[in-house]
Specification:
With 192 residues, this protein is mainly alpha-helical. The chain has one domain. Helices cover 81% and strands 0% of the residues. The chain has 11 helices and no strands. Helix 1 runs parallel beside helix 8, helix 3 runs parallel beside helix 5 and helix 8 packs antiparallel against helix 9. It starts with a helix and ends with a helix.
Length: 192
């Protein structure tokens, strides 16, 4: 497969990610205007007075295949404090996401040896196996940068004979995603 097809796959998914981010931004602005504005104090106390709960939900979400988009947590972090606090939170979120992907990769390494998983894995990964066969390393990069399920793709890669060092290097694109999305979120609030 030539590089052009792989790059097209990557850019199509990046565009989907940006569309997803635009939808989240629109929902956020609507909620801020029509829900939070009327009950500002209740919402602030409910979500900002318990940061450990928010961090726990985020960590659980990243380990359980990204139940919530990380951008929601970046929005929370923006209103939690100053620019340094926001940056520290985005770095924390990126580190947790990278670690959750690595954990999923290791789980995949273990599961490939389990006979029952070979049967269940066909059903569980049926949507992503063909993509991995077709795109290989580009699927890791695409999952790191876009809304594709990061932990699930990492687990799938772990079930193959994919080299761990190469996976860890490609997984660094996940941190790039958080940097770019965090910057976009920060700048969009500076303009508002």
């Amino acid at each position: 497969m030539n590089l052009r097809v792989k790059l097209k796959f990557l850019f199509n998914n990046i565009l989907k990610g940006l569309l997803w981010m635009a939808i989240l931004a629109a929902l956020y602005l609507l909620a801020k205007e029509y829900i939070v504005a009327d009950n500002h104090d209740i919402w602030l106390e409910r979500f900002y007075s318990r940061p450990m709960l928010i961090y726990s939900i985020y960590i659980g979400s990243e380990i359980l295949f990204g139940l919530f988009p990380p951008e929601i947590f970046m929005l929370w972090a923006y209103f939690k404090g100053d620019v340094w606090h926001y940056t520290a939170n985005v770095l924390f979120f990126a580190g947790v996401s990278y670690a959750a992907g690595y954990l999923a990769f290791l789980i995949g390494r273990y599961l490939r040896k389990v006979v029952l998983f070979r049967f269940l894995g066909r059903k569980f990964f049926s949507k992503y196996w063909p993509l991995f066969r077709k795109y290989g390393s580009f699927l890791i990069i695409t999952a790191a940068l876009t809304p594709l399920p990061w932990s699930l793709i990492s687990m799938l890669v772990g079930t193959t004979e994919y080299p761990m060092k190469k996976y860890l290097n490609l997984a660094l694109f996940r941190i790039l995603r958080f940097g770019v999305y965090g910057y976009i979120i920060f700048q969009s609030h500076q303009l508002a």
